[in-house]
Amino acid sequence: MITLPGGSAGSPPHRHTGPAFGFVIKGEMIFELEGGPQRVIKAGETFWEPGGDVIHYQGANNLPDGETQYMATILAVPGQPVLIPVSAEELEARKDRRAPRP
């Protein structure tokens, strides 16, 4: 269970070794995966990401003054971290894979 206070940017860009599935319980989350457009996921909606080499750019709270809460189930390779941060150098090298943002 993840709770983000109003305006929270969430985790920095990262990846997971396996797929992730989630459900927004309360609020609104800005969700962005490499190769896809940024989108807003509202309470009652779901999300997923394939894991592996795909960068998860954003999982931010879209509400400036309201809490957002979501549940995530993340499958990971045994012995590997669940969340692997992406360096600034890698983000720069892969910037052509990121969809234009509003």
Class by helix and strand content? Answer: mainly beta
N to C succession of SSEs: EEEEEEEEEH
Number of domains: 1
The CATH architecture is Sandwich
**Percent of residues in helical segments?**
under 10%
Return the average pLDDT rounded to an integer: 96
CATH topology name, in short, is Jelly Rolls
Q: Per the principal axes of the C-alpha atoms, what is the gross shape?
A: globular
Distance between the termini: 28 Å
Percent in strands: 35-45%
Say how many strands there are.
9
How many separate helices? 1
Regarding CATH, which class? Mainly Beta
Q: Looking across the biggest beta sheet, what order are the strands in?
A: 1-8-3-6
Uncertain spans, ≥5 residues at pLDDT below 50?
Answer: none
Overview of this protein structure:
The protein has 102 residues and is mainly beta. It has one domain (2-97): Jelly Rolls, CATH 2.60.120.10. 6% of the residues lie in helices and 40% in strands. It has one helix at 88-93, and strands at residues 2-4, 14-15, 20-26, 28-33, 39-42, 46-49, 56-61, 68-74, 84-85. A 4-stranded antiparallel β-sheet has the order 1-8-3-6, with no helix packed on it. A hairpin with a 5-residue loop joins strand 4 and strand 5.
